[in-house]
Amino acid sequence: MRWNSVGWLFLAPTLLILFVFGVVPFLYVLVIGFTQWNSFAANPDMQFAGVENFRRLVFDDQFLYSLWLTLKFAFFAVVSEIVLGYFLAQLFMRDFPGKGLFRTIHTLPLVIAPIAVGATWRLLTVPGLGPLPYYLNRWFGYEFNISRYIDQAFFTTVVMDVWHWTPLVTLTLLAALSSLPKEPFEQAQIDGANRFQIFWHITLPLLKPAILATVFIRMMDALRTVDEVWMLTGGGPGAATRYIGLHIWRVVFPKTDYGYGSAMSLITLYLTIVMCWMLYAGLVARRDLKRAD
Amino acid sequence: MRHFRKKASGSLMAIVFWTLASLITLLPIYWMFAVSAKSRVQLFGSPSFVISSFFTENYTITLSDPAFQRYMINSIVIATSNALLVTALALLATYALSRYKLPGKENLFFWTITNRMAPPAVFLLPLFLLYTQVFVVADVRLFDTRIGLILLYCVFNLPFAIWTLRGVIDGIPKELDEAAFVDGANTWQVLTQVILPLAKPGLAVTGILTWVFAWNEYLFAATLTSVHARTITTGLAEFVTVTGTNWGRMAATAMLTLVPALLVLGLAQRHIVAGLTFGAVKE
């Protein structure tokens, strides 16, 4: 080991950038969250307001609704992606001609800009242009209009997210499946276990760390989804797809309610951390319980 | 023979299944392409996936639009500068984390990733205020500048790069550095002549994925720029918010936004998943 000062020197530019553009904004939002500051208000100057913003948040129906929607969206999207991704990963476990090509196609949505994903789905679903409303109506007599029906708008955002991110789950679980030891499966077959028993008692426990890690990563991303939904529905109809990121943007920019928006940002950040921590704790605790048996 | 036949029918089923799955993946993108290749008149009426004659005007008008050209150049400059800066700084940082005995370095390593996990919407307002009002030196603001976005994108790309490069640098035997030091090389020479050549493949992948993340970013680009530094993603979003419903041109712009993604798919396909899971998953 050589001079530490050289080591710190190498780290300095990275730490400086992360501090100025990561930590400073965080500290700033922390300060603004405790003030009353709205450039359209009677008194447009920043003034200390204590916890008033946070008190307001607890009774803010719009905020709570947006939070509930975000959780609902993340739940439906992540659960569908995990189930579908696991199924697809299993199908990729065997060899067949053209596997490489199919895998490449499957990976494609992962590298597309979220805003372009939103554009794609808008072109698919916009009434009068998109094939989805047209054929659903023509073949099934189903009226599909995401700018009118709130449930359709909500589930279209979920389907879009599933289309965009299931490949990540597939490939993560595929990597995990490929690295599982062979012996437990062979032993179980000798003992006469059926497919479901093998899945439930062997595959699932062995795969649990990988599944939870994937849920963790997908959950964080789903909770902060903005771009695709903004492009697809703009948060509408009404507030039906106004997820928390879109809601914060609305409070902060068009309404210029800086103090209140900052408090909202802080709560959102806090809830995200708590949720991730719970997920992580759940993962560790379960494993410890198993070991204690 | 029976075993062989069973295997063959299994393969056939797999091919049929994956062909359908691939159709689901590709159809939305193909539809976008079809819209971009049709005139307003051709788009009128029932949606047809057939492109009878390629209507090039959506592309020629888009490509010759000065605003679009500016967005495109901005995106290329910002993504490329960010990728180079991030790769260089991350190489230095990971080398320090890997080879030096720095107190608290593992905590520091984990702390970096929190910058990437935080919801971006939380940082919109403070960054907007900092860029317009606080980081001001004699009339020069970071707001609506390329350098502003280049530096900001480091906040989420640096942690990613450090996390992916950590394994690469740790994988280079320390004995190689030691041998070079014994031969009288200084730290800089070790870094550029021993580490750099060996880490090149890892650096390339990190750089390519960083480039894509910067290219794809929308929320900050939309909030922290107004005219001069607008990127291609914000240009695409403007079709919904400002220009209204010129679907053909919106589709053409989106197709052009997609081009780098397709290149990356060819260049770094095997590493995309490692990149998106902070290096937690390796294939």
TrEMBL record, chain A:
What's an example GO BP annotation here?
transmembrane transport
SUPFAM superfamilies referenced in this protein's UniProt entry, alphabetically:
MetI-like
Could you give one GO CC term from the UniProt record?
plasma membrane
Query: Matching CDD domains, A to Z?
Result: TM_PBP2
**Residues annotated as transmembrane:** 7-34, 63-89, 101-124, 153-177, 198-220, 263-285
**InterPro entries in UniProt:** MetI-like, MetI-like_sf
Compartments, as annotated in UniProt: Cell membrane
Provide the family line.
Answer: Belongs to the binding-protein-dependent transport system permease family.
Keywords of this protein's UniProt record, alphabetized? Cell membrane, Membrane, Transmembrane, Transmembrane helix, Transport
Q: What is this protein called?
A: ABC transporter permease subunit
UniProt membrane topology term: Multi-pass membrane protein
Domain ABC transmembrane type-1 residue range list: 67-279
TrEMBL record, chain B:
Highest taxon listed in the record's lineage: Bacteria
Q: Which GO terms describe its cellular component?
A: plasma membrane
> Could you tell me which PROSITE patterns the record lists for this protein?
ABC_TM1
Q: Write out the transmembrane intervals.
A: 12-31, 73-97, 117-138, 150-169, 247-268
Alphabetical UniProt keywords: Cell membrane, Membrane, Transmembrane, Transmembrane helix, Transport
- Domain (ABC transmembrane type-1) ranges: 72-268
Q: Which cellular compartments is it found in?
A: Cell membrane
Q: From its record, what is one biological process in GO terms?
A: transmembrane transport
The answer to whether the entry has keyword Transmembrane helix is yes
Membrane topology, record value: Multi-pass membrane protein
Mind telling me which Pfam families this protein's record contains?
BPD_transp_1
Q: Which family does it belong to?
A: Belongs to the binding-protein-dependent transport system permease family.
Query: Which PANTHER family does this chain map to?
Result: ABC TRANSPORTER PERMEASE PROTEIN (PTHR32243:SF52), MALTOSE TRANSPORT SYSTEM PERMEASE-RELATED (PTHR32243)
Put simply, this protein is called ABC transporter permease subunit
